[in-house]
Known about the structure:
There is one protein chain. By secondary structure, the chain is an alpha+beta fold. The chain contains 3 helices and 5 strands, in the order αββαβαββ. It has one domain: GMP Synthetase, Chain A, domain 3 (2-Layer Sandwich). The chain has a 5-stranded mixed β-sheet with strand order 3-2-1-5-4. Strand 2 (38-43), helix 2 (50-64) and strand 3 form a beta-alpha-beta unit. The radius of gyration is 13 Å and the shape is globular.
Amino acid sequence: MNATTLDGFIHLERAVSRDKGGFALFALFAREDLPDRWDLIVAAPWIRSQKEGADYLVQEIQKHLSSAVLTDLSRIVVVKPADAQVQAINMSIQVEHGRAEIRNSDMFGVPIKRGYIITSQRLGSAAK
Protein backbone atom coordinates (compact mmCIF):
# COMPACT_ATOMS: atom_id res chain seq x y z
CA MET A 1 0.00 0.00 0.00
CA ASN A 2 1.43 3.34 -0.92
CA ALA A 3 1.81 6.16 1.60
CA THR A 4 -0.91 8.30 0.00
CA THR A 5 -3.50 5.52 0.25
CA LEU A 6 -2.47 4.73 3.82
CA ASP A 7 -2.79 8.42 4.73
CA GLY A 8 -6.24 8.36 3.11
CA PHE A 9 -7.31 5.48 5.37
CA ILE A 10 -6.01 7.37 8.42
CA HIS A 11 -8.10 10.40 7.43
CA LEU A 12 -11.09 8.13 6.72
CA GLU A 13 -10.82 6.54 10.17
CA ARG A 14 -10.60 9.94 11.82
CA ALA A 15 -13.67 11.24 9.91
CA VAL A 16 -15.77 8.15 10.66
CA SER A 17 -14.76 8.27 14.34
CA ARG A 18 -15.85 11.89 14.52
CA ASP A 19 -19.20 11.13 12.84
CA LYS A 20 -20.13 7.72 14.31
CA GLY A 21 -17.93 7.10 17.33
CA GLY A 22 -14.58 5.54 18.06
CA PHE A 23 -13.08 2.30 16.85
CA ALA A 24 -11.56 -0.29 19.15
CA LEU A 25 -9.65 -1.49 16.08
CA PHE A 26 -9.15 -0.12 12.58
CA ALA A 27 -6.40 -1.99 10.76
CA LEU A 28 -5.20 -2.99 7.31
CA PHE A 29 -3.54 -6.40 6.92
CA ALA A 30 -1.85 -7.95 3.88
CA ARG A 31 -2.21 -11.70 4.27
CA GLU A 32 0.63 -13.99 3.24
CA ASP A 33 -1.62 -15.67 0.66
CA LEU A 34 -2.71 -12.29 -0.86
CA PRO A 35 0.24 -9.94 -0.31
CA ASP A 36 -0.97 -7.31 -2.81
CA ARG A 37 -4.50 -7.08 -1.41
CA TRP A 38 -5.52 -5.79 1.99
CA ASP A 39 -8.06 -6.82 4.59
CA LEU A 40 -9.69 -3.93 6.43
CA ILE A 41 -10.43 -5.14 9.97
CA VAL A 42 -12.70 -2.98 12.12
CA ALA A 43 -14.23 -3.24 15.58
CA ALA A 44 -16.57 -0.57 16.92
CA PRO A 45 -19.55 -0.71 19.29
CA TRP A 46 -21.73 1.27 16.86
CA ILE A 47 -21.41 -1.37 14.10
CA ARG A 48 -24.28 -3.81 14.57
CA SER A 49 -23.52 -6.36 11.83
CA GLN A 50 -20.94 -7.41 9.24
CA LYS A 51 -23.17 -6.28 6.38
CA GLU A 52 -24.04 -2.91 7.94
CA GLY A 53 -20.39 -2.20 8.75
CA ALA A 54 -19.06 -3.27 5.37
CA ASP A 55 -21.72 -1.37 3.41
CA TYR A 56 -21.14 1.79 5.43
CA LEU A 57 -17.36 1.60 5.07
CA VAL A 58 -17.56 0.99 1.31
CA GLN A 59 -19.67 4.17 0.99
CA GLU A 60 -17.21 6.12 3.13
CA ILE A 61 -14.20 4.82 1.17
CA GLN A 62 -15.87 5.92 -2.07
CA LYS A 63 -16.67 9.32 -0.54
CA HIS A 64 -13.33 10.04 1.15
CA LEU A 65 -10.88 8.11 -1.02
CA SER A 66 -12.04 6.65 -4.34
CA SER A 67 -13.72 3.61 -5.78
CA ALA A 68 -10.31 2.54 -7.12
CA VAL A 69 -9.07 2.01 -3.55
CA LEU A 70 -11.69 -0.72 -3.17
CA THR A 71 -9.71 -2.84 -5.65
CA ASP A 72 -6.81 -2.84 -3.13
CA LEU A 73 -9.09 -4.49 -0.55
CA SER A 74 -9.79 -8.19 -0.51
CA ARG A 75 -12.42 -7.87 2.21
CA ILE A 76 -13.80 -5.83 5.07
CA VAL A 77 -14.09 -7.79 8.30
CA VAL A 78 -16.15 -6.58 11.24
CA VAL A 79 -15.33 -8.02 14.65
CA LYS A 80 -16.70 -7.18 18.06
CA PRO A 81 -14.63 -4.93 20.34
CA ALA A 82 -14.92 -7.61 23.04
CA ASP A 83 -13.32 -10.25 20.75
CA ALA A 84 -10.29 -11.81 22.46
CA GLN A 85 -7.96 -11.01 19.55
CA VAL A 86 -9.11 -7.36 19.49
CA GLN A 87 -8.53 -7.15 23.24
CA ALA A 88 -5.04 -8.65 22.84
CA ILE A 89 -4.15 -6.13 20.13
CA ASN A 90 -5.56 -3.29 22.27
CA MET A 91 -3.34 -4.36 25.17
CA SER A 92 -0.15 -4.60 23.09
CA ILE A 93 -0.62 -1.65 20.71
CA GLN A 94 -2.18 1.68 21.62
CA VAL A 95 -2.59 4.10 18.75
CA GLU A 96 -5.36 6.44 17.64
CA HIS A 97 -5.53 7.98 14.15
CA GLY A 98 -1.92 6.96 13.48
CA ARG A 99 0.01 4.05 12.11
CA ALA A 100 1.68 1.19 13.90
CA GLU A 101 3.31 -1.14 11.40
CA ILE A 102 3.43 -4.88 12.00
CA ARG A 103 5.20 -7.58 10.01
CA ASN A 104 5.15 -11.36 9.90
CA SER A 105 2.47 -11.84 12.51
CA ASP A 106 -0.63 -13.92 13.05
CA MET A 107 -3.89 -12.00 13.41
CA PHE A 108 -7.27 -13.66 13.84
CA GLY A 109 -5.70 -16.99 12.89
CA VAL A 110 -4.40 -15.65 9.56
CA PRO A 111 -0.70 -15.25 8.75
CA ILE A 112 -0.05 -11.56 8.07
CA LYS A 113 2.87 -10.47 5.91
CA ARG A 114 2.48 -6.78 6.71
CA GLY A 115 -0.09 -4.59 8.40
CA TYR A 116 -0.94 -1.15 9.67
CA ILE A 117 -2.93 -0.59 12.80
CA ILE A 118 -4.47 2.87 12.49
CA THR A 119 -6.42 2.73 15.73
CA SER A 120 -6.22 0.25 18.59
CA GLN A 121 -7.78 1.35 21.86
CA ARG A 122 -9.88 0.00 24.67
CA LEU A 123 -13.25 1.71 24.63
CA GLY A 124 -14.52 0.70 28.07
CA SER A 125 -17.51 -1.36 29.13
CA ALA A 126 -19.79 0.08 26.41
CA ALA A 127 -17.73 -1.70 23.75
CA LYS A 128 -19.29 -5.16 24.06
